Amino acid sequence: VALRQASERLEEFALIRALRGRFSHRDAEVIRGIGDDAAVIATSPKQWWHVTTDMLVEGVHFDLGTASPEAVGYRSAMANLSDLAAMGAVPRYLLTSIAIPRRCTAAHVEQLYGGLMKACRPHGVNLIGGDTSASRGGLFLSLTLIGITRSGQALLRSGARIGDALYVTGTLGDSLAGLQILTRRPSGRVAKPHQRFLIHRHLRPTARVSEGQWLSRARLASAAIDLSDGLSGDVRHLCEESRVGVDIELGAIPVSRACRAYAKASEQDPTQLALSGGEDYELLFTVSAHRQPAVEQQAKKAGYRITRIGVIRPRRSGLRMRSQTGEWHPLPLTSYEHFCE
Amino acid sequence: VALRQASERLEEFALIRALRGRFSHRDAEVIRGIGDDAAVIATSPKQWWHVTTDMLVEGVHFDLGTASPEAVGYRSAMANLSDLAAMGAVPRYLLTSIAIPRRCTAAHVEQLYGGLMKACRPHGVNLIGGDTSASRGGLFLSLTLIGITRSGQALLRSGARIGDALYVTGTLGDSLAGLQILTRRPSGRVAKPHQRFLIHRHLRPTARVSEGQWLSRARLASAAIDLSDGLSGDVRHLCEESRVGVDIELGAIPVSRACRAYAKASEQDPTQLALSGGEDYELLFTVSAHRQPAVEQQAKKAGYRITRIGVIRPRRSGLRMRSQTGEWHPLPLTSYEHFCE
Questions:
Q1: What is the ipTM of this complex?
Q2: What confidence tens digit (pLDDT) does each residue in A219-273 have?
Q3: Burial state string for B169-193 with b = 16 or more CB within 10 A and e = fewer than 16
Q4: How far is A84 from chain B (nearest CA, A)?
Q5: Interface of A with B in 21-80 (CB under 8 A)
C-alpha cells in the first residue's frame, strides 16, 4: 500500500513539474511560482503576498464515516495555515470552494465552516469569498489562503546551503500514530492519556504559524518547509529545491513519549512513524552555522521546541540517514498519502 | 426542471448570505468580501487586488460525454476571467486545484491545462500554483484568479443609483441556444452558419475583459456584474447589492440574428432565451445620466457593442420588465444552472 501511495504522489509531482515548465509564464513580480509551499508575489515595494491552495477530497483525504464535517473543515484550514507557516507569512484572507453532495445537509455545511473558522479565527483570517456547488460525487473542499510578509522576508524551500543545520519543531509521527489508533483495532496496551494525546495530534493539528514568523522576521532560517507528506518526503522536496543533499541522524528525530509507547505496543519502529507519517504540520528548517546559537537561545526563551536532526550536504552526497547503530542508509522513498486506503 | 434549478440556486445564495453574516470578519483593507464578483483587497495605497474563485464539477457544470477536457478548461478559465472583467480588473495570477478520477489520463489533464492556458495566455496571466489530487467521484476543477486595478477604480455591484441607465454588452441568449443545439435534436430549419455561431458562443465564450477595464478606468460605469447566471438572475444580484429596483424594456434586449432564427425555428421566445440563458459572459452595467453620451460615443469609437435595456428605479418599485406590447410584469425568478439536467 505504501508503495502504491508513493508512486501516486511521485506521478503527481512529476505532472506538476511538467506543467510548471510548459505553462508558467512568470512576470518580474512573481517571486515564487509553482513548487514552493505557496506562490509569492511582490504586491508593493514593501510587501509580499503568499498564496496557497489545497484541496481535500472525500474518499481520498478523508472519510465522513470516521471524520466529522467540523474536523474536515478544521484540518483543511490547518493544512493551508501550515503552508503559510512554512513561508513565515501572516495568514490574512481565505476563499472556500465547496462541492456538496445531496446527502449533506445545511447543518453539515455549517459544521464544516465552523471547523474552518475555528482554525482560522485565532489568526484573524478574513473569509473573503468562495464558490458553492452541488456534487454528484463526494464532498470536495478547495481552500485558497493568502498571507503576507515584508518583502524579502519569506522562508523558501530553496535557501538551504551546505553546512546549514537541519531542525524540526515539535515531535514527529504523532499524527500517524493517532490515525492508526482511530482506524485499527484498539491498542489496549497503550495508556489512555497517551492515546488521547495522539488522537488529538491527529484530529487537531496545530500549524506552526508563530514559529514560522519568528524564523522569517529575523531571517534566522535559510529555508523551510512544513511536514505534511512526512519527514522523508518533505526533506526530499526541500533538498530538491535547494539543490543540496542531507545527512539525517535518526536517533535525533524527536518522538513524543506517547508515540514511543504506542510504537512499542504495536511493534513498530517509532522512527519509521516519524519518517513516513504525514500531517504532523511541524516545520522543517535549516539554519546557517553562525545563526544556530541565536536560534537555539531564542527558541528556548519563547518556549518553542526545536530539535537539530541533521546537516545539509553537497548534492552529490545524496539524501542519507544514519541509524542509531551508526550505519548509513539512503532516505527511503516513502510518502504518506493522508487518509488514503 | 427550471423551478428545481432556481430553488437550488436560491438555497445556495441564502447559505452564502448566512455564512457571510456569521463568519466574515473584515479588516479595513478588505474593500469587498463575499457577495461581489470578486473579493477586493487594498494591497497598497495605489492598488487593489481582486480575488475570485470558481468551481466546475463534473455532472453539474459539465459532462465529459459532451465537453472535451480542453473545453472544460477553457470555459472554467473564462468564467473566472469574466468575474474579473465585471470588476474592471486586469487578470494576473491563476491557481488551479484539480481532482482527477482514475479514468482520466495524463493526456486529459494536459488538455485541460491547454484549455485553461488558451483562455488565459492572451491576457498574460501567470500560472503560479495549485493542488492536484485523485478523485473517487468525478472531475473537479477549482480556479482562483487574481486581478489588479488602481485603488478606487473597481466596478462594484453596489454602485447603481436611481436614474442610472442599465446597459449590456454584446447579445444575450446565444450560449443557451448553442447548448440546446448541441444537446437536443438537430434544428434542421436553422441555417448552418447561425448554428455554428451559436455553438461557438456556447463553447468559446469571450469574457469582456477589455470592456470592463474601459468602463472602470475612466469611471464610466457606476456598477457592473457579469452575466453568468442569466440576465434575470444577475440583474437581481446587482439590484440587491445596490438596494435599488429596475425597469427593463424587453424589446431593447439585444438578441443576435442567429439566436432569433433559432428561437423562431424552435418555437421559443428569443427574449426568454436572453432572460434565462446563463454563461453569455457579457457585462451588465449602469451609467449615470450625465455620463451616457460619453459612454455611447466611446463605445462606438472602440467598436464595443453596448445596448441600453433599462433604468434603475427606487427599491420599492421592485424589479419589473415591460413587454413589447407595453404591459408590466415582475422579473421572473429563473436562474439557469449551467449544464445541469
A1: 0.82
A2: 899 999 999 889 999 999 999 999 999 999 999 999 999 999 999 999 999 999 9
A3: bbbbbbbbbbbbbbeeeebeebeee
A4: 14
A5: 22-27, 30, 33-34, 38-39, 41, 43-44, 46-47, 49, 51-55, 57-61
Extract the C-alpha cell encoding A289: 552555522
Tell me the HSE value of A225 on the side-chain side, using a 13 A CA sphere.
25
Residues of chain A predicted below pLDDT 70:
1-25, 35-36, 185-188, 334-341
pLDDT in tens, A313-340: 999 999 999 998 999 999 987 544 333 3
Whether the CB of A102 is below 8 Å from some CB of chain B: the reply is no
> d(Cα A79, Cα B214) in Å, to the nearest integer?
40
CB contact B128 to A (< 8 Å): yes
Tally of CB atoms within 10 A around B219:
14
Q: Do A129 and B44 touch (CB under 8 A)?
A: no
The three-state DSSP-derived secondary structure of chain B is CHHHHHHHHHHHHHHHHHHHHHHCCCCCCEEECECECCEEEECCCCEEEEEEEEEEEECCCECCCCCCHHHHHHHHHHHHHHHHHHHCCEEEEEEEEEEEECCCCHHHHHHHHHHHHHHHHHHCCEEEEEEEEEECCCCEEEEEEEEEEECCCCCCHHHCCCCCEEEEECCCCHHHHHHHHHHCCCCCCCCHHHHHHHHHHHHCCCCCHHHHHHHHHCCCCCEEEECCCCHHHHHHHHHHHHCCEEEEEHHHCCCCHHHHHHHHHCCCCHHHHHHHCCCCCCEEEEECHHHHHHHHHHHHHHCCCEEEEEEEECHHHCEEEECCCCCEEECCCCCCCCCCC
Cα B313 from Cα B153, distance rounded (Å): 24
CB A307 within 8 A of CB A318: no
CA distances from A168 to A89, A154, A163, A247, A318 (A): 18, 18, 16, 14, 20
- Does B325 reach chain A within 8 Å, measured CB to CB? no
* Residue B152, burial from CB neighbour count under 10 angstroms (0-12, 13-18, 19+): exposed
Classify the C-alpha dihedral B291-B256-B235-B63 as positive or negative: negative
Cα A169 from Cα A299, distance rounded (Å): 10
CA distance A76 to A114: 12
C-alpha cell at B69: 477536457
CB-based contact A127 B23, cutoff 8 Å: yes
